[in-house]
Amino acid sequence: MNQSTSPKTLLAIFAHPDDEAFGTGGMLALNASRGHTTALVTATRGEVGEISDPNLADPENLGQVREQELRNAADALSVGELVILNYRDSGMDGTDDNKHPQALAQADADEVVGQLVAIIRRLKPDVIVTFDENGGYGHPDHIAIHKHTVAAYDASGDSSRFVDEGEPWNPQRLYYAVFPRSTFVRMRALLEENGEDTSELDGFEENDLGWPDDVIHGVIDVSGFLDAKWAALNSHKTQFGPDHLFNRIPVESAKTLMRQEYIFQAAPEPPEDVTYSDVFEGLDS
Asked: Is the pTM higher than 0.85?
């Protein structure tokens, strides 16, 4: 395994509580165990997410409940620092929540980018990971935090920008946490084997779900941290209920799907045909 030999910093930037657990929970826990610094920025408290069990929360206190769930998940993953930005969940595309004045989707881009630049310059991450351009499945907040993170990655090393937000810092890589299309194929097959409804995953290619398998730059083995990842997922009780896809297949099958996490290197352009096994691979040289 080509793992970094000197302490480094991994910064994950996402939109809602629970975003961190699925695609990066394992790599956060893995790198914390290796002595690297890990940090997580979450832009909203997920105030308008669906509630899996009405006994857990209501629309008025959901943001507060999900914040605590996020803190529990971060503890399960040994995240070194958690930063929550004070934006509101924008809800799904086309809903009234998109228009809320505090919604992330309505936020001034320079304001959000400035906050992220300040965090990057303070934490000095070697690598940053966030959503891809489609936000995984098109959620407005996922797309927004993708755009703002990319802009902050570009601006953080520019001494002429955000001059009051600390000394310039150039992270060495920007990754997207992605789910290969093959993962959706496997998930659909598992649902079918267990007599479960597969309609959520029918036609996923036409719906632009999943990342092409042949343009993935890193496959991270997190099999040693499945218990931490599973604990993080289950910390998000309001979201991770019995109807969730991963709870509609046997636990061991779900954990098998989570044994690997996948990254696409967005910047700088990676070497041809690279397949990293470690997010910091090659950064010691």
From this structure: yes
